[in-house]
Amino acid sequence: MALLPELEAIRRSQIIDAAVRTIASKGSTNVRMDDIVRCSGLSKGGIAYYFPTKESLFKTVFTDYFDAVYDTVKQELASEPSTFARLARIQMLFDRERLEVGTGYPLLADFMYHAIHREEYRPIFARWVDGWVALLVEVIEKGVEEGLFIPMDPEPVARSISAIYQGVGLRWFLAPESHSRTWALSTLELAVRGVMAPWLAPGVALPMVS
To answer: How far is CA 208 from CA 60, 83, 88, 192, in A?
Structure first.
């Protein structure tokens, strides 16, 4: 009995992983529970024990997956020595070899479709945005502590930067022929420089990001 919670966590993770891969490859509107049954190797009853409806599973998939991406980005930002680079170039978001990218962008686009047409998904969207804003607020506050930026309310500034990432990222992923990785990274740096320019401390020049 002591192992039951651990086993339940494993089963739940197994179902979510199968749903992530299935939604990313087919799109949620084309996914049936039978698809997730086949991908997970579990029975319909086994899945229904954790997720009684497809809707409840999808909402959990979107929430859990994006939380995992936040954690990964936060870890990678912590290893970047340059504060400005942490704002201007979250490079892992533009690496097609990474699982988080190949799966994450299709999930994001799918999720946004739901949020546009169904109001119950919008709080999840707001939570997703707020997660990115919180990551960027931490970096901006660090820049203020270092004397790179003057004191400010970092939240609206972070929201501007997060919106830039969303727009550039979707262009880069969906139209790579005309929006290369080089274009994406240089556009981000130029745009973030513009957003942060009014907040630079006197005498400070932002370094170039290699």
So the answer is: 40, 12, 10, 12
Residues of the chain above pLDDT 70, percent: 98
- Closest listed residue to residue 170, CA positions, set 80, 83, 106, 74: 106
Which residues are 149's β-sheet partners? Answer: 200
Domains and CATH numbers, the chain: 1-52 (1.10.10.60), 54-199 (1.10.357.10)
Is pTM beyond 0.70? Reply is yes
The predicted-structure confidence for 176-185, as pLDDT tens digits, reads as follows 999 999 999 9
Q: Hey, is 51 helix, strand or coil?
A: coil
- Amino acid (1-letter code) at residue 138: E
Euclidean distance between CA atoms 165 and 37, whole angstroms:
35
Inter-residue contact 61 to 23 (CB < 8 Å): yes
